[in-house]
Amino acid sequence: MESPQAALDQENTRLAIDEFNRFVENYPNHALVANAQSKIEELREKLAYKEYLAAQLYFKMKYWDAAIIYYQSIINEYPRSVWVDDSQFGAGLAYKKKKEYSKATEIFTKLVAEGKTDPGIKKKAARELSEIQKYEAKKREKEKK
Predict the structure, then answer these.
(1) Angle formed by the axes of helices 119-144 and 84-97, to 10°?
(2) 125: helix, coil or strand?
(3) Rounded distance, CA 90 to CA 66, Å?
(4) For residue range 25-47, what is the model confidence (pLDDT) as tens digits?
(5) I need a labelling partner for 111 at 20 to 30 A (CA). Which of 23, 28, 104, 141 fits?
(6) At 7, is the secondary structure helix, strand, or coil?
């Protein structure tokens, strides 16, 4: 109940997760274990969203490296989160902005190929992949001349 909205400090959210985990460990057969696990997932989702908001802020500020760190944090720490696909896409865009096209291509290719990815993100990833391929083709043509 004391867990604040995602944009605020999440210390109470972390404390709540610890308490729910402690309950599940101490009383694994209790009738409320499923409810506690559900709350843990809900609170972890809030933490993932907090990280996503930070990544988006850094992206808007054009701090590509910081944005990538936050996007990767979501991907690694919250692999089942609804924010993973958006984070992968954001990381790909940040690499593209940094002109690290091979890393961006790798991420966008993975997003297009994966079955679990949101169809909207798949479409955007395919578009970004196409833009990178066109850019690299033009670059190769210029180098030939």
Answers:
(1) 20
(2) helix
(3) 12
(4) 999 999 999 999 999 999 999 99
(5) 141
(6) coil
Q: What confidence score (pLDDT) does residue 144 get?
A: 74
Cα within 13 Å of Cα(100), Cβ side? 13
If you count DSSP H runs as helices and E runs as strands, how many of each does the chain have, helices first?
6, 0
* CA-closest candidate to residue 124, choices 99, 73, 88, 78: 88
CA dihedral angle for residue 59, residue 116, residue 48, residue 88, rounded to 10 degrees = -20
Enter the tokens of residue 107: 């991420």
- pTM, full prediction: 0.84
Does residue 3 have a pLDDT over 80? no
Q: How far is CA 15 from CA 18, 21, 99, 114, 143, in A?
A: 5, 10, 40, 35, 57
pLDDT tens per residue, range 60-108: 999 999 999 999 999 999 999 999 999 999 999 999 999 999 999 999 9
Local structure of residue 117 (DSSP, 8 states): S
Q: How is domain 11-144 classified at the architecture level of CATH?
A: Alpha Horseshoe (1.25)
